[in-house]
Amino acid sequence: MSETQPATAAEALLQRLKHNGVDYLFANGGTDFPPVIEAFAKGATTGAPMPEVVITPHETAAVAMAHGYYLVTGRPQAVMVHVNVGLANCVMGLINAASDNIPMLMMSGRTPLTEHDRFGARMTPINYGQEMRDQTALVRESVKWDYEMRYPEQAAILVDRALAIAMTEPRGPVYLSLPREPLAEPWPADRPVGGPAQPVPAAAQPDAAAVDEAAGMIARAKFPLIIAQRGDPEGRLGAALARLAGEQAIAVCDFWAIRSVLATDHPMHAGFDVGPLLERADLVIVVDSPVPWIQKSQGPAAGAKVIHIGADPMFSRTPVRSYPSDLHIAADPAATLASIADALAGSGGDVATRRDEIASAGDKRRADLRATAMKGSGSPMTPAYVTHCISQAMDDDAVLFNELGIAPQFHYVRGANRCFTPPFSGGLGWGLPAAMGAALADRNRLAIAAVGDGSYTFANPVACHQIAESHGLPVLTIVMNNGIWNAVRRATLSMYPDGDAAQMNRIPVTSLEPTPDFTMIAAASRGWSERVESGADLPAALARAIAVVRNEKRQALLEINVSV
């Protein structure tokens, strides 16, 4: 046996994860883990290639870290938790990952199948209490594929298949259940664990006739509009969008963007309010946007044409979605926009007037937003002012994970994949651990989590700061503290603007007061922390925090007093 030949299925599974490019296993252990723990110990002795374990004291952090890691690298990672109870804590994160098409391999142990005879059989009362007839039912609606390993020789092929399916467009999480007995059984002595992995199918390329039809619609349009809510981690869509919008003078709207696609100072960036743009547009191009507008109150003008582009432009996993369309192009969005740009190149269309108009409107909008932001520097500060200051403090390579923290329209985004927000599934507690996943991918790149005080609490911050200290993750956390669940407050006022709740100083079921001293939570894990009360002090405080992150390579936290 070579030094990397697995002795057990658990060893084969870990080696095959590494063979498939999985660098990290985000783990929250339990009594189902002994074969995996023994496999890691064996690997440390033999030098067998295996992922690095990232111990996560709470499961929600594990899933969100894998989510954030993928967003900045494009590489799926693996998560393993304890049987049904650990998997239950992962459900919210998997809902987020499914909504955002994030590939990851979710694994959990399964309580031992047998009571006696077999190695690994039940040995504690919880092995009975944690038994389920269908453990996978907890997550089945949120994963693309699921299976329970039954025999040791399946370990490698199941890892291959799971990751290939996760990375097949449209991407998403997959789930593998791991009973303890087969994990502990011997791996076939004559079977190598190496060899080629299952290839990921190439992304669908756009149909030539559909490209020509879309190009013709753009050429005929008086005021075309693009709505793009997310792109690929490599930034290919951002580049293709910048080219097409720039060459053809097409306005681009960042309506509820999940991942930034276009720099906000791009001449064709037309802001964040889609309503007025829809009213004017005679052609709307929807690019990988699950919710391009709110149908109850917004929609294209009468007679306007609509094109939907994406790996799944129908968003077929969504039960109810009735956006109008004249043309669906089911293909890689970046390749599709590039092909449309090629088809329009040299077409001779006169778009100079439209280009100047969109660019001038953008310059005025940005100047107005800056003026508005600077008026909010008092105590408490406005979210607009805080957002402006954060933008000024970020360098060109920094990434921001925003969860009900900043005001997006006031944020200067420098390009594709610089600002991320939670998917529309809305599972809270995502922002901080997702930023930690980005910091794990590159500790030299500034990763910021800008979160509301409610979102920070949802993130299990004690666990998150412990993970950041344990693994040396220099993430900057900015907690914007207004003492309230402001999203709940806004939703209530939107539905009942003249209702009884609107007349109250404190709307029921929204208050988070008295709030804890959040700086002490970070300090408990030896993080640098500071509270900022006045806007005049914020730029210097941000500079101090970033200096700690960059120079000392340790986590920092700013708690900022903001208005609702």
Task: Describe the structure in your own words.
The strands form three sheets. This protein has a six-stranded parallel beta sheet, sandwiched between helices. It has a six-stranded parallel beta sheet with strand order 13-12-14-15-17-16, with helices on both faces. A five-stranded parallel beta sheet has the order 8-7-9-10-11, with helices on both faces. The protein has helices at residues 9-19, 34-46, 59-73, 83-99, 126-129, 155-167, 180-184, 208-220, 236-248, 274-280, 333-344, 352-374, 383-393, 431-441, 453-458, 461-470, 486-495, 518-523, 538-552, and strands spanning 24-27, 52-55, 78-81, 105-110, 146-148, 174-179, 224-228, 251-253, 283-287, 305-310, 327-330, 399-403, 419-420, 447-452, 475-481, 528-532, 556-561. With 564 residues, it is of the alpha/beta class. The protein has three domains: 9-184, Thiamin diphosphate (ThDP)-binding fold, Pyr/PP domains (Rossmann fold); 208-360, TPP-binding domain (Rossmann fold), CATH 3.40.50.1220; 375-561, Rossmann fold, CATH 3.40.50. It is globular, with a radius of gyration of 25 Å. It contains 19 helices and 17 strands.
